[in-house]
Amino acid sequence: MSNETATTTTVEAAPAQDPSPQHGLGASLPSAESRAKTEGTFPYAADLWAEGLLWAAVLRSPHPHARIVSIDTSHALQMVGVRAVVTHEDVPGSAMYGRGTADRPVFASEVVRHHGEPIAAVAADHPDTARMAAAAVIVEYEVLDPVTDPEQAFEAEPLHPDGNLIRHIPLRHGDSEAAGDIVVEGLYRIGRQDPAPIGAEAGLAVPRPDGGVELYLASTDPHADRDTAAACYGLEPERVKVVVTGVPGATADREDQGFQLPLGLLALKTGCPVKLAATREESFLGHVHRHPTLLRYRHHADADGRLVKVEAQILLDAGAYADTSSEALATAVSFACGPYVVPNAFIEGWVVRTNNPPSGHVRGEGAMQVCAAYEAQMDKLAKKLGLDPAELRMRNVMATGDVLPTGQSVTCPAPVAELLQAVRDFPLPALPKDTPAEEWLLPGGPEGAGEPGAVRRGVGYSLGMVHMLGAEGADEVSTATVKVHDGVATVLCAAVETGQGFATLARQIVQETLGIEEVHVASVDTDQPPAGPGCRGRHTWVSGGAVERAAKMVRTQLLQPLAHKFGMSTELLQITDGKITSYDGVLSTTVTEALDGKELWATAQCRPHPTEPLDDAGQGDAFVGMAFCAIRAVVDVDIELGSVRVVELALAQDVGRILNPAQLRARIEAGVTQGVGAALTENLRTARGLVRHPDLTGYALPTALDTPDIRIVKLLEERDVVAPFGAKSASAVPVVTTPAAIASAVRAATGRPVNRLPIRPQAAVVTNGH
């Protein structure tokens, strides 16, 4: 086996067809930034520079919980080259901020609630001076006992003025007295996964002549960041501008607002541009992580394996502050039963504050944790009933028209049975030789010291689901403008390109609609109308929908004169490959000739149908749409050492419509790889609230050698009629489904319960047949 096979591979889901178009929807159009990123010339936030630049550094708490007795900045201010030091006393506006709930201080003032919480920030002439000055700020602490067990948070003294309980959702669906012939129970724990952005946070703040400030950031939600900053600085939003610089990949809220806000404060105080480039340690301590979760489940089924009732208790650890934890809990509770028909469900969900690192939005939040638990339960049911695990799942899968435990009908395509059947029928990979020629094929690789005779192969299944867009009444809206001049189209939309491919999609939409090949997507800043955050497939739906509507309006402007001249409606004209033709062939001209030097433009909005919050019984139409995925995992486990090698992941996914085949495959592969990390290696460990090894040595991301063969065996195109283009979110659902599939395969190989993620070696060791 060559080294090339260690990297991601795929199998085309569809039979061979005619070559794909070179532009427009359906083409594998490459990213406009791909060349610059490959050559290393792409300007990231860490590359920014300005005349008279100062450097910033942030002093962070070494304790997870302590009372601040005093803060002395005098020594730092006396250091040569130090231009300013700011603390909570220097915040002129709102001292609190937060993505969902404004409960987090810009700088801790009386109490620190997590390891790494900002205390002060320094601006100096040199980055080393700034770091030394931050270390010279003397803080006297009264160390307090941290609350790190979320179960203890219910009885502990309040850690925050808002209390320890952030939200409680009791979901009630069906008959509470219903019971099944077969009952299985389980307790599951999910670890703290970090989004681990490729580039750590960096940014530049530049004061403006009007007393405002411009922030140059790798922001994924620039308008929300601007509004937060303006409130903190005591300025009108119009006097704060956020300019989005090169984003080095984002799978979550990669930008820590606690990192952004000191930048502007220092720039306003010094009157100079201020730059801050976080270390990897600061990045780990500052931004949010996946919610560690404790889950207790009880599944009831009849003798044929049909689910009768699901009971569950779900406890999410929010860390010190609320952030988006309320939304994560709603997702976890709503999808606690998975893509299965469950007539009776009784779920209790809580999310609480602790002194652990902060949690928030990470791709698939809430859904990934419950998927690992309910799929473990399905494996237990199958074993107790003596059924094939895939067959048990097939007997219970959801379909369009079924009802979620929240009472919401699934109106979008839900081809779960077809997805499961596709991975079930896909040929299994060949078994390795007894003595592999390449030792790295053994679990643990050549240094694993494993024996081929101790290796066991396992096959497992998982079905996952995610929601798209915001939920529970979130107002999802985006605005876009399309301009055409001199045969070139320009798209203006504040949707940030985070690696999800929106900028490429926007070009394809305009190419498809207007027949103009040269399309540019303008850089993003807050002078444009808002487009919202880049998560949950939002920009494909709402921002792509806004671009399409604006492009269609320009198309009408372009075609109306021709239609009027020939006495026909614009609907009878079509644009293909830059040519305008009529249905009867009478009219045939080019788009360039039709434009005739004119400048056309239009602005449009896209706003999906509204949703509603869950009520006191966890009922309500809370979600706009859903996406589904089935994965079959094949693993080799060394049952003496507990090391695991994922051999292959076969995936089938409903994608609505394939808009860019190459881009779609890349997004799915990236999501699967992130799921592999959550299953086997990624866990930001803490000891009584202190983060251990906050670096990429102590936090193990999967590499190319850890990534298995990824076989995309089916991409089901069943368009969602309410979504623009009919497309669905692509990358979150593989993240959700992959860890559960790997855990299922390890269970099959070892017979062990595997009730914790990431899977620890001791969980896969088999001794004396157990």
Automatic annotation (TrEMBL):
Please list where the region (Disordered) is annotated: 1-34
Gene3D superfamilies associated with the record? Aldehyde oxidase/xanthine dehydrogenase, a/b hammerhead (3.90.1170.50), Aldehyde oxidase/xanthine dehydrogenase, molybdopterin binding domain (3.30.365.10)
Q: Which InterPro entries does its entry note? A: Ald_Oxase/Xan_DH_a/b (IPR000674), Ald_Oxase/Xan_DH_a/b_sf (IPR036856), Ald_Oxase/xanthine_DH-like (IPR016208), AldOxase/xan_DH_MoCoBD1 (IPR008274), AldOxase/xan_DH_MoCoBD2 (IPR046867), AldOxase/xan_DH_Mopterin-bd_sf (IPR037165)
An example Pfam family from this entry, by short name, is Ald_Xan_dh_C
Which residue ranges have biased composition labelled Low complexity?
1-16
Q: Which residues form the Aldehyde oxidase/xanthine dehydrogenase a/b hammerhead domain?
A: 39-145
Q: What is this protein called?
A: Molybdopterin-dependent oxidoreductase
Organism, scientific name: Streptomyces vastus
- Read off the lineage from the record: Bacteria, Bacillati, Actinomycetota, Actinomycetes, Kitasatosporales
